[in-house]
Amino acid sequence: MIHGILTSCIIFFVPYLSVSNSTRPGGMSQADLQSFAFMAATIMVIVVNLENALETWYWTGLYHFVLWGTIVVHFLFHFALYSTIIYQIFSTNYGYVGVAQAVLSTGNFWFTLFLTCVILLLPVFCRE
Fold it and tell me: Where on the phi/psi map is residue 93: left (φ > 0), alpha (ψ -120 to 50), or beta?
């Protein structure tokens, strides 16, 4: 239970500090909140799957398909959700267009992902 609480705090605060340090002095904008949400969700999916992969004893074809498929489906879902097609359907107050592409094109996201993965997977490596 302590591991889950610490993992949740790290998945929340590392991306939050990463996004909040890159914003304007007036505070976080709506785009920054959307970027933070996408970063936190993506980091959570990747960290959980990597930790699951490290705990696995037997790698079968089905396991590979499910593990990597989960990550691929996550990205496909977000690319579809943040696309212009959804904007055309829900054109009123839909400001999410291009968030996934914008976040994935920054070095800040990739560094935050790497840092969070290292922090959270270090106990798994040390325990082995």
Answer: left
